[in-house]
Amino acid sequence: TDDVEGPGHAQALAEFLDAGENVHALTDEHDVKCSWYKILKDKSSGTHRAGPKYRPYTPSQLDTMSKSLMWLRDRYEDQPIGAEILPVLNTYLDMVEEKRYEERPEPATLSIGRKRKVQYRAGTN
Question: What is the pLDDT of residues 98-111, one digit of tens each?
């Protein structure tokens, strides 16, 4: 969400996605920058969704996120872009594991994205 680097990262992501099979992402620099600003910075665009603001992920959704991120990590580990993308994927894996256990009342051993184990108890770490 950085004002200086954010649009550039969004542009790189758009070009990466557009290079994929059957994906047609906006790649025009002006369109990407405008979309980035509208989605992340424009507070007037609000949401029209009703219901509770907090909707926790289900264990199944978290499992799917973890599996997808690990698949991407394995796929790009030996690629030239790996040095750039692996730290991001590992951060996302850590976030998924933290989210999985943030509301657990009892201690749980986490197997975090970088294969390190930690003890976690909601509200104590």
Answer: 988 886 655 555 55
User: Which of 16-20, 67-71, 82-86, 106-110 shows the lowest per-residue confidence on average (mean pLDDT)?
Assistant: 106-110
As a whole number, mean pLDDT of residues 15-44 equals 82
Pick from 108, 122, 115, 109: nearest CA to 90: 115
Distances (CA, A) of 112 to 26, 62, 89, 124: 34, 13, 12, 17
Phi, psi of 2 (to 5 degrees): -70, 130
Check if the beta carbon of residue 18 is closer than 8 Å to that of residue 24.
yes
Residues 45 and 41: their CA atoms lie apart, in Å, by 9
Distances (CA, A) of 15 to 20, 54, 80, 89: 9, 32, 16, 18
Residue 124 has pLDDT above 50, yes or no: no
